[in-house]
Design a protein that fits this description.
Chain lengths: 266, 265
Amino acid sequence: MKAFFGKVGETAFFVFTGVYHLFHLFATVVRLIAASFVQKKVLKREHLVYQMVQMGFDSLAIICLVGAAVGMVLALQAAYQLKQFGAVLYTGSLVSVSMARELGPLVAAIVISGRVGARMAAELGTMKVQEEIDALATMGLNPIKFLVVPRCAALMAMLPCLTIITDVMGMIGGFLVGTLGVGINPALYIAKTFDALVLKDIYTGLAKSFVFAILIALISCHQGLSVEGGAEGVGKATTQAVVISIVLIIVVDCLATAIFYYAVPA
Amino acid sequence: MTENLIEVKELVKRFAERAVLDGINLGIPTGKITVIMGGSGCGKSTFLRHLIGLLTPEEGEIWVDGENIVGMKEKEMNQVRRKFGMLFQGAALFNSMTVGENVALPLKEHTDLSAEIINIIVKVKLELVGLTGFEKFMPYQISGGMKKRVALARAIALDPKIVFYDEPGAGLDPITASMIDQLILDLSRKLKITSVVVTHEMKSAFRIADKIIIFHKGRVLEVGTGEEIRNSKNPYVQQFIKGEPEGAIPFKQTSDAYLKGLLET
């Protein structure tokens, strides 16, 4: 019994210190990004562009593939169910709205947390283990300014873009299945796709993906920077980064959907 | 006695109640090479991390060039760090950058020099460590000894007053290690850099040291020139410099004695 409560207390302590450190890191990053608008030296353009290419451009293939696959599956399942009500025509609407509002941001964030988050955690973790972070500090270069800020800023810019691409690819996937597989008239499908879509669907999705980007970048960088103890530590941090990111993405997604559903008018 | 550039007073550091540094008092003379020696786990690397401000002590003062760096804010500390160069045990080169970019990094970040001038400085610094024309190589393409030399070139890029060396000869063959020693000597004599070398390699220590400080269990055990340390009467110092398994510290320890030893530190 005692051991049980001890474990609960220990876990709670870890969670709270983790949250505290994350908020601290978040505050520092926000302050530095704000400062970068005034002082050019804080965030160098070459570092930002390099990270944006690494995170955004290099993720395009997998994002397109996953987005299209999700759209296809969605169209197929939707058509199968809608057929019972004689509403197969609405497949296009269902796919476009659910991609823009929910699946686009969520799928893009989960793919990117696996691809980019893991990479960030492993990269920073290895740097920590090999004393490179200490070397930066010794040179008077703040590791947060030098390593975390470009990564956070790049992901905050790129994840919404990747989300739009996921949305579009999902709709294209849905279109292919809907027209070629289910046999809906292409013109009708397209018309239904855009009929249902309103601006709110798009911008709530993008707002969510912006928040997810902050979560992924902060958690992954924090995990990487707090690595201790060699290769095992790096492995652990990488896993933790992806797991914590995905869990938080889903939790925040629930909250955000509820907020947008009840609080923001269409 | 020459003036001290670094002065450490009553430095105490505890990791979870265990005092790793237990009241260190010492001075690092200006323009000389000071070697800090001691067995594994005696606190010498921890001590070095305090000097560069990566760790904060529980008690005590560290005066660097007339400023106490204990309790200093990050911004002021970064100003003090401009006076430092540090050679890490594993070289700690940035693996995503070329040799030239590594050396150029402190120059790019801390000065407003143009790219051409930075390139010239990088060439000069690499030449100083005997690596002319290696700018385009990546760190994983060069040997361990070369990495150490590149790291040294990076450490002296901003012409620091003080260079810290953490185990400069560790993991290198005797010839390469002695080349690194020669570099330390050259830099200290020619550029008048104050050097602090942490090592446990006796040969190299006696070859380069103006002053030797021996640590034992988080305290300063003996201070002196190479000659004075060699003639020390302290049985631990004698065992340490001769590298014998039996002596003041017995080779075989009973578990009680080991536990007692742990509790003492």
